[in-house]
Amino acid sequence: MRLVSKTSQYVVMSLFAVVFLAPLVWMISASLRPEAKVLSVPPKFLPTDAHWDNYRQVFELIPVFLWNSVKLAGLNVIGILIVASMAGFAFARLKFAGRDIAFMVLLGTSIIPGIAYLIPQYIVFQHIGWVDTQYPLWVPKVLTPVFATFLMRQSFMTIPQELEDAGKIDGASTFGIYWRIMLPQTKPALAAIGVFTFLESWNDLFGPLIYITSENLQTLPVALAQFQGEYFTQISLLMCGATVSVVPVIVVFLFAQRYFIQGITMTGMKG
Questions:
Q1: Which pLDDT tens digit goes with each residue over 102-123?
Q2: Mutual orientation of helices 63-93 and 99-108 as an angle, nearest 10°?
Q3: CA of residue 255 relative to chain centroid, distance
Q4: What is the pLDDT of residue 258?
Q5: Cα–Cα distance between 62 and 238 in angstroms, integer?
Q6: Distances (CA, A) of 260 to 22, 175, 193
Q7: How far, rounded to the nearest angstrom, does the alpha carbon of residue 140 sit from its chain's CA centroid?
Q8: Which positions fall inside the ABC transmembrane type-1 domain (predicted)?
Q9: Which residues contact 113 (CB under 8 A, 6 or more apart)?
Q10: DSSP 3-state percent helix, strand, coil across the chain (nearest 5)
């Protein structure tokens, strides 16, 4: 009976895997076809003759966009990990007046939709000269990581008090306890935040369209949108660009998968 149950589970999971992988396989297949054969009927998942010239054309167009996306993703990930881990440590392990109230106010800001303060924020950035620069795409996110701070606080609260006490006995400073003792214990939460932040920054189309007008500062999602016109879409080139944009996401997730899953499951264990 147990063998039947296990077999049925694997069959169901395999079917779901096929369903979810089919669009990805078609995307890669379409990226290797001539434009005239992309929408063939019935659809073909394996190209008979690989048309690698599509990738050559795409890589002639996107190097600057790709570099901008990589740079912004790196700034967002590194900045948010630093700020959120410090703020989470303070809210979880330090005792100061108004700590819990400040944390509740911080969480309360997350219920305000971004579209509500988009115009005031744009006006502020315009006055300080940040419009048509990349600062609006990473500075506000790094300085206000509400969700990341919440995850880090929950992660720090699961660490036994004895580790912190041992550090104090050894004469470690508050920063030393945070950096040498506490932070290494939160690798799962850091990985989860890093993956979430990378995905959000990498796929951001709205921000660059609002704040950036110079083509040399635009990002990869904007470059992909350029393959779509009002009356005509270059599907094969669009699929090439989409394949290129998906590869870093898959690589990041594969490297952080173990810690990522642990981070999601462990950060809600203690409130």
A1: 999 999 988 888 888 899 999 9
A2: 150
A3: 14
A4: 73
A5: 12
A6: 25, 25, 8
A7: 16
A8: 66-256
A9: none
A10: 75, 0, 25
